[in-house]
Amino acid sequence: MAVVSPLPKFKVVFVGDKSVGKTNIIYRFMYDKFDTTYQPTIGIDFWSRTILSVEDTQIRLQLWDTAGHERFRCLIPSYIRDSSTAVIVYDVANRQSFLNTTKWIEEVRKERGSDVIIVLVGNKSDLVDKREVAVEEGDAKALEFGFIFIETSAKARFNIKPLFRKIVTALLGME
Ligand code: GDP
Ligand code: MG
């Protein structure tokens, strides 16, 4: 019988203010679905998906979806500590959520130091008329800290696959 070597597994934690679209980004990636009603994540949700990375290697991504609610914030540090990638999400139509990424960056740094891949994501890029954060600002912040940056729209199915492709590329050190 052939020996099946275990798939490389990577933990990816999603953080950011509530309602920025973390759960919908994951839904879009996992099921190609979008949910217009807002259902706050209770505590922490978990998804796992095996994906084919570049050069036909398979890897398994474990996605941890956190809730922005105060009541559950105390749970978040342990998930950050356990993850090799942190996706920090803000809403391009909500300036405060962009400013608050600084707090999320500090939170991630506190748990992981620089031993972590950080991806800054500006979601809801479809809200053109309501935009409060320019793409250049997200770009500049990511550049300042040396993060990966991408704008997405879970609703319009924009840049979701490229987001995960960037994560995998970084995880496999193929940048
Ligand atoms: P979370 O609290 O960060 O997990 O945010 P959710 O994924 O639950 O989304 C919060 C709200 O924003 C919901 O009403 C979603 O339908 C909406 N939403 C999420 N992503 C997008 C997006 O890309 N564009 C728009 N216009 N709305 C979005
Ligand atoms: Mg959620």
From TrEMBL:
It comes from the Eukaryota. This is Uncharacterized protein. It comes from Arctium lappa.
